[in-house]
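Whiteboard transcription, Tuesday session. T.W. wrote the structure tokens on the left side:
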């Protein structure tokens, strides 16, 4: 038994390194093997299942509101769970969610376009809720775990950067490959391209392939989760910081503390802006490529080219943060994204569609370049916000703070696409006509809609980071010093009772 205790102690004191970073990146890769399908959900149900824009908007809003409510409930459950697990609390919850995601991601893509309307609605809502429950169980503890891997600010920034790497890889692979697999160009009997009323080649969506792709992505995500669970080290005791044992957990009080937590609010508004603008634009962008450019199968490649500049900052992010600070660097980047949003309004004015496409990609590159710093440190923002909650209110609440952040993110994920679908309907898109039957004015309107969404995203992100988020470099240093001083005093030390520790250690197998 003493040997097991010694091994457990060694596990806690392992030096932070590249293995932790790669493992944490693999975790978000696993999450995004599922999350990256969200944009395809709207396109699948709009184009293949042919749900009317207003009805799909309503259904999407309903499931996303539940999605948002579901997050703080699971976060509160994790915070209040004091049971001892062989893998540890956070890794256990992640594993349970990962097992569910093996098949849950495909449930919302069951291809039955000729089914009755009520059956379609039932399949959409039921499939989405099951998928969302599995995703939340995995994602909430995964996000909260960053603050438990290390307490060092620079190392947290590294973890956040590597999480962004995993996120981008998890998004880029399906973003690039899926459109090529699920869209098919149509030709006439003589081999000439079929053209729509806008004069572009018709492309149709193959829904059966979306279902198969979702199953494959579920398996890839599960493998990534297993690698992370086995490789990453949690160095901070999961139950080391406790709320008052005599008081029951109060979710309303935690919500009130969150709303007074300016770093959490600022980081959350910035993330909401990203989803309300950029991510909500994904369906409109796909429809724009299909109806205006006639290149829906290449839409993913164009998006990836636009976001490649984000990788520019990754090798330098630690030095950049140490010199200027997370807030300062991210605010300047958000300002560059605003410039990219302004450039986005130029491409609809160019008559030549090839040149218009080139201008769109240039504007997207500028926007992505500005987003680079924020993308690298966005999750470190939340780790610092968790520390801020402890600094100001005396309670840590990793799961609750992160899950409330996720609540508002997911609310934006629901409201944004729902509003965009309504705007698409107002701008002339008719679901029953498919992509091949849309008029030229409708295709042209999609261009303006996409430009407006990106501009909105850049402006709100800049305001959130520059004026709401208040942990500048100096304040962050002060907070970290004071928290370290509190934990150094005997009164602040919180230790788990020895029998409980021994009970856990006995369950941990030797690494031999």
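and on the right, the sequence the group agreed on:
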């Amino acid at each position: 038994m003493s040997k097991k205790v010694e091994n457990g102690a060694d596990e806690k004191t392992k030096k932070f390194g590249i293995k932790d970073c790669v493992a944490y990146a693999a975790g978000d890769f696993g999450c995004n093997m599922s999350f990256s399908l969200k944009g395809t959900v709207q396109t699948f149900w709009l184009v293949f299942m042919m749900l009317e824009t207003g009805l799909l908007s309503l259904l999407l809003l309903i499931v996303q509101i539940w999605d948002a409510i579901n997050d703080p409930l699971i976060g509160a459950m994790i915070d209040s769970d004091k049971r001892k697990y062989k893998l540890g609390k956070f890794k256990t919850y992640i594993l349970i969610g990962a097992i569910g995601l093996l098949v849950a991601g495909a449930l919302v893509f069951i291809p039955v376009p000729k089914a009755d309307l009520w059956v379609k609605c039932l399949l959409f809502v039921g499939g989405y809720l099951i998928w969302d429950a599995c995703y939340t169980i995995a994602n909430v503890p995964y996000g909260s775990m960053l603050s438990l891997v290390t307490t060092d600010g620079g190392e947290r920034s590294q973890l956040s950067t590597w999480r962004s790497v995993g996120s981008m890889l998890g998004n880029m692979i399906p973003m690039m490959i899926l459109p090529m697999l699920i869209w098919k160009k149509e030709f006439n009997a003589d081999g000439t391209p079929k053209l729509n009323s806008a004069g572009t080649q018709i492309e149709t969506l193959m829904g059966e392939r979306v279902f198969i792709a979702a199953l494959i992505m579920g398996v890839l995500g599960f493998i990534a989760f297993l690698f992370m669970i086995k490789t990453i080290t949690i160095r901070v005791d999961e139950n080391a910081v406790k709320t008052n044992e005599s008081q029951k957990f109060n979710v309303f009080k935690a919500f009130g503390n969150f709303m007074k937590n300016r770093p959490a609010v600022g980081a959350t508004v910035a993330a909401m802006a990203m989803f309300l603008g950029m991510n909500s634009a994904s369906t409109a962008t796909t429809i724009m490529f299909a109806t205006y450019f006639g290149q829906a199968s290449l839409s993913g490649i164009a998006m990836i080219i636009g976001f490649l500049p984000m990788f520019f900052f990754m090798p330098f992010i630690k030095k950049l943060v140490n010199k200027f600070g997370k807030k300062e660097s991210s605010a300047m980047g958000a300002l560059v994204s605003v410039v990219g949003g302004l450039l986005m309004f130029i491409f609809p004015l160019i008559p030549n569609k090839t040149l218009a496409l080139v201008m769109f990609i240039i504007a997207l590159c500028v926007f992505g370049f500005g987003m680079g710093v924020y993308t690298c440190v966005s999750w470190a923002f939340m780790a610092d916000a968790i520390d801020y909650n402890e600094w100001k209110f005396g309670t840590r609440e990793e799961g609750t703070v992160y899950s409330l952040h996720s609540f508002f993110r997911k609310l934006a994920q629901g409201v944004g696409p729902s509003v965009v679908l309504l705007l698409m309907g107002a701008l002339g898109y008719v679901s029953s006509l498919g992509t091949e039957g849309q008029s030229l004015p409708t295709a042209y309107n999609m261009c303006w809609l996409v430009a407006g969404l990106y501009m909105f995203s850049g402006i709100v992100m800049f305001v959130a980071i520059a004026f709401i988020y208040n942990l500048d470099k100096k304040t962050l240093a002060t907070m970290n010093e004071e928290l370290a001083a509190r934990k150094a005093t005997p009164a602040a030390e919180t230790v788990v009772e020895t029998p409980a520790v021994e009970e856990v250690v006995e369950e941990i197998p030797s690494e031999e």
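Someone added at the bottom: The first strand starts at residue 183 and ends at 185.
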